[in-house]
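Long-time lurker, first post.

We've been arguing in lab meeting about whether magnesium ion would sit comfortably in this protein at all. Half the group thinks yes, half thinks no, and nobody has a model to point at. So I'm putting the question to the forum: if I give you the sequence and the SMILES, can you give me back a predicted structure of the complex? Inputs are below. Any interpretation is welcome too.
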Amino acid sequence: MSQTGNPGGNQRPRTRPAGSERALSESYDTALLDLDGVVYAGGKAIAHAVESLATARSGGMHLAYVTNNALRTPDAVAGHLTELGIPTGPSDVITSAQAVARLVSEQVPVGARVLVVGGEGLRVALRERGLEPVESADDDPVAVVQGYGGPELAWGRFAEACYAIARGVPWFASNTDLTIPSGRGIAPGNGAAVEVVRIATGAEPQVAGKPLPPMHRETILRTGAERALVVGDRLDTDIEGAFNGGVDSLLVLTGVTDGAQLLAARPEHRPTYVDADLRGMLTGQPEVAPVDEGFACGGWVAAARGDALVIEGEGEALDGLRALCAVAWTAAGDGVCALDGGKALARLGL
Ligand SMILES: [Mg+2]
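Top reply:
Settle the argument with this. Predicted structure of the protein with magnesium ion, as C-alpha cells:
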C-alpha cells in the first residue's frame, strides 16, 4: 500500500498492482465511491455492494459517494442509496454540480446571476454557494453553467447558453462525460451537450468533474478525508481523478472496464488495486512479485513471449489478471502496452 498519485508529474509510472496485508477498509479512513457500475447499475444495487459497504462502515470507514452526474441533488442520491439498503445522508454525496458551483463562486461576486443549462442539482448547488440561478441570457447572467439535464432538456436551453457566451460571459461545465448509461442503453451525456455549445460558439468551458482537480478538491473539502481511497469502475474518470489528486484507487470490474482495457492502461489510468467487486474493500490485496520470467501472483505466473502476454498456473482468475497487469504495465512504461493479452485473458475466463 502506498500513496502513488502523481500531482507533480515526477514519479515513476506504476508498473504493478500494489499488495496490502491489511484490509483496505482499515488502511484508508475514507472511501470515495463512484456510483454507476460500482454501487448500482440501472438503478439496482450491484451484487455484494450493500453488505460490503455495511461491513466497511461498521468497521469505522467513512463512506462518501462521488458522482459526475449533476442532475440529481445530494438529497435525491442519498434517498436512492438508502432505499437500496445503504443508509446515506445528503452530506455523504458529492456531485459535480457542487464542484462546478464552487468553481463559479470563486470567479464571480456573491449573489451573482448564473445562467443554468441543466437540472435541479445545479440550481441547488449554485444557491448553496450564494449564487442566483437564472434561465435566460436576457437575465444578465455573469456566468453560464452547463450540467446534465436529463432527456427532457429542451434544445432551446443550448441557444440561451450560446447567446450569453457570445456576449463574453464565461462558460462552465459540471463534467464532460460523453455518454450516460440508461436502463435502455447508452444515452448522450453532458459532454455531448457541451459539444453542441462548443461547436456553435467556438468557446471552451472550464470543467469541474472527474478526472479534473476541482471535483477531487470538492470531495476532500466535504469529507475531510486524510487517507482517501477512490473506488471506481472507469479508468478515464475515477482512476485518473485519483491519480490527479494524488490518492490511491481501487478498480472494480462490475462496471465498464474489462481486462483488456486494464492491461492497456496508460500510467494515469493504472489503479493501485484491482478487485472483482466491493468485497475487495474488506480484504487485503495479494502481492504481485517479480520472478525470473515475469511476475507471479497467487498460483499464476505471467510473462511476455514474442508479441503476446502468456499466463501459466492455476488459482483465482483475478490473481492472474494482477500478474498480467504487472507484465503489461512494465512493458509499457509510460506508454500503452502493445502486447496481445487476448489468449491470456481467455485462459483466465476474463
Ligand atoms: Mg461509474
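For your lab meeting: Residues 317-332 form the longest helix (16 residues). Confidence is low (pLDDT under 50) at residues 1-9. Whichever side wins, do check it experimentally.
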